[in-house]
């Protein structure tokens, strides 16, 4: 438990660094592949949990689309959605982990992509999550 809290603290300041380093960043969430929030910045817990759950579906959909490409391994690397009012970014961030960002419509898309990649490289080992085993929290036995 102490190691998990230490990793959470390490990710918190790194997520803050991303959010403050890219103007127009609203929320940053790190999530597991099954949609569980691992860390957050700029969002309350309920918002971060909703984003994490939605991202799980989005990464699954992106993987299904990727598998239609010849020579693809079906793995999603980056999804960008432009909508009224802003942008949404979802990036693979290690084995079983993803980095999600909501940003305002004035965000510099190139800077955001670069900073997200830099963050993933810097803390990739903190973002990887092992598969949960039967009997662990959230799993039926």
UniProtKB/TrEMBL annotation:
Regions that span the bilayer: 86-107
Gene3D superfamilies to which the protein is assigned, alphabetical: Dynein light chain 2a, cytoplasmic
Domain Roadblock/LAMTOR2: from-to ranges: 12-103
Alphabetized Pfam families for the sequence: Robl_LC7 (PF03259)
Keyword annotations: Membrane, Transmembrane, Transmembrane helix
Signal peptide start-end: none
Name of the protein: Dynein regulation protein LC7
């Amino acid at each position: 438990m102490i190691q998990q809290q230490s990793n959470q603290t390490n990710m918190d300041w790194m997520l803050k660094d991303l959010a403050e380093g890219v103007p127009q960043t609203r929320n940053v969430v790190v999530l597991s592949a099954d949609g569980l929030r691992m860390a957050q910045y700029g969002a309350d817990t309920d918002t971060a949990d909703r984003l994490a759950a939605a991202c799980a579906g989005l990464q699954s959909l992106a993987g299904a689309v990727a598998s239609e490409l010849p020579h693809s391994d079906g793995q999603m690397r980056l999804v960008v959605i432009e909508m009224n009012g802003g942008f949404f970014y979802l990036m693979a961030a290690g084995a079983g982990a993803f980095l999600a960002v909501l940003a305002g419509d004035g965000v510099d898309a190139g800077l955001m992509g670069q900073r997200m990649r830099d963050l993933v490289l810097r803390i990739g080992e903190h973002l990887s999550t092992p598969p949960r085993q039967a009997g662990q929290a959230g799993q039926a036995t």
